[in-house]
């Protein structure tokens, strides 16, 4: 069922979007915000991860560039700041204790089949992990409660059809391996939930909270064709891990719950399709290159909207209220494909990358294709 496009849905403006300083020399494949500061990491096909400080940003000149992680000639396909969001229950207190977020390390997934990690406190020191036999498509820091000191664990998803779990303190070997049925196209996680979207159009949903020491890591359940017959292009897990969103190459997105008992509540909707004005009335379909949830201001405890952003090959972004199945705001095309997007830790800022997404093959690329990073300040009224 598609979210209703209500008459109150607003058309946003690009006039106030802020340009980042010159940085990536090629398409940005992923954007990730620090969990506790207005620091943004951008993984690029030019073989670097660029890190920016957007604290108190007013203009592009006030965005400060920090050290970049240089991986050499191979493209970076994903990146992530270390972060902790696991819940520890104390039986004698009946309270939930939240571990502090980190955000002092950046890990990047490279086409050179390796993972590169940089400590932002010592930017000249880069750790490299090797274990995959094909390009590493996705990387996420995760929390596995059964493992001592879970703050340092990584999961990498590769085109070699595996997920590897790493403890950087025990390098160079992974501490666990998961063999999948196909290549990893996209991956995301939050809290106990980790989801990998694979090339055979399936979502492999892992509940890390059910693991015990020494147990093999296996999917809690598998969702087949979450966005219909079109392959998965992008994936996001909401803060806390309760639900997910996926985008497809067919101009549609899907929303669902991580709980296997709620798979019947999954729905899809059109978001980057345009009805042609020609006599043939054809539908122009664009890939949903990126999806991103906004973290609720108080963690979702007071029933705010579930706000999801979708960004597409058509150069547009949309903000949706998934809870009410409505589009909140639509933004016009920026003139080139949007390849990645994301909200910062308190959803006051929204960043997106413009570049060529190879949706039309080599013939569609050109030297004058738009390239760059943009920042948009988010109206608080959209979240409440």
From TrEMBL:
SMART domains: WD40. WD repeats lie at residues 21-53, 129-167. Keywords: Repeat, WD repeat. It holds the Pfam family WD40. SUPFAM superfamilies: WD40 repeat-like. This is WD40-repeat-containing domain protein. It comes from Triangularia verruculosa.
